[in-house]
Write a structure and sequence with these properties.
single chain; alpha+beta; Rossmann fold; Dna Ligase, domain 1; D-amino Acid Aminotransferase, Chain A, domain 1; 24 strands; binds adenosine monophosphate; binds glycine
Length: about 425
Amino acid sequence: MTETVLLVGGGGREHAIARALADDCELCACASNVNPGIADLAASFETIEETDADGIVAFAESVAADLAVVGPESALAAGVADALDDAGVYTFGPREAEARIETDKAYQRRFMAEEGIPGCPDFETFDDMAAACDYIDAYDGDLAVKPAGLTGGKGVKVIGDQVTAAEAKAYLRESDYDRVVLEERLVGEEFTVQAFVANGEVRTTPAVQDHKRAYEGDEGPNTGGMGSYSDTTMHLPFMDPGDYEDAAEVIEAVVDALPDYKGVLYGQFMLTDEGPKVVEFNARFGDPEAMNTLPVLETPFLDVLTAARSGESLPELTFSGEATVCKYAVPDGYPTDPDAGARIEVDEESVGDALLFYASVDAREDGLYTTTSRAFAVVGLGDSIAAAEADAEAALSVAGDRVRIRHDIGKPDLLDRRVEHMAEIRGGE
Ligand code: AMP
Ligand code: GLY
């Protein structure tokens, strides 16, 4: 029987999900934007806001969907997985209650502390911004200031890195957040481990390192992620295999404490001198990280979804063993003052062996235009990170001059710096 799978979301992450599923099922997709890559792969595509649970259920029923995959956190926070599940469409994505692990950072830290999940930094939560400012004054060391709700990765301010203590306090006073988390500043190298989770089982995928800063050399404001790489192994060059195992144990501990969790659980870790500490959890694939992971997944993603639905054991995963480098092309001025409405050239024929994933582009009759978000990404694959990087760069010749790219992602210089940085941190043990 051919399964009909509904995909919710229209970014690069969802284009990667669509590509992983399209050959094995009838794919139907909906998103607030028309992603030309997904629209090409899908049997039907509807424009629906990702947070419109009723509209998404109606579309799922109209196409007789058997399964659903939810990409963006905004949909999970709006209860789209609950609504689809309740309508009889098994959804690979957590219900709103479990998605709080991402959508409410104050809950997430309390959950970690109460359940004894390893890798939790010191933290306090505040509803009163004046009390939060007093805590900053009294704290011995640097703190990260985090709004409790969703901010697209752009609301966090780290004292001693991006801001001074005085600037952090001004930010708290001016921003009018209902609740913030203040936590110990973690120092080290960041990495991501994403896992498929259902029926209390966990299957982890290779570690990825994203680059949140807008400009080369890790300068500038935080973005949704400018690009990312993974290695031929499960870990990354600056990690030991044991660091990966420690991160996987953290994810397993979360699932033990949340036995009903289903979907992707994404752990963002800081590898510190004391091992991996949790920066955050996400309740979905990362964007860009999905574009590193799904192209090297040899196990059909559909088999993961059907096993999850049936309550059977999840399949053991196999990966191609290729390294990957993903680079996003973003509008000029992104993220602070993005040049939306710029006509961009994307020559699909010229990407060579690399993969092209569309994200937030506006497809008009006369071509593609930028929006305020990341436009498209290329992913190079190879038998080393260097080979994958060269593949990605060759493909970027398609990008034209109306977009900005962090060319340094995946380059040997930057990788060496990460390894040296980690050695310095461990050397200080
Ligand atoms: P988040 O939205 O929690 O992913 O935070 C965005 C970024 O802020 C992370 O990717 C880190 O680079 C940084 N960050 C968050 N929490 C901390 C922390 N406790 N210490 C240092 N950096 C942090
Ligand atoms: N790459 C970071 C995220 O998806 O949240």
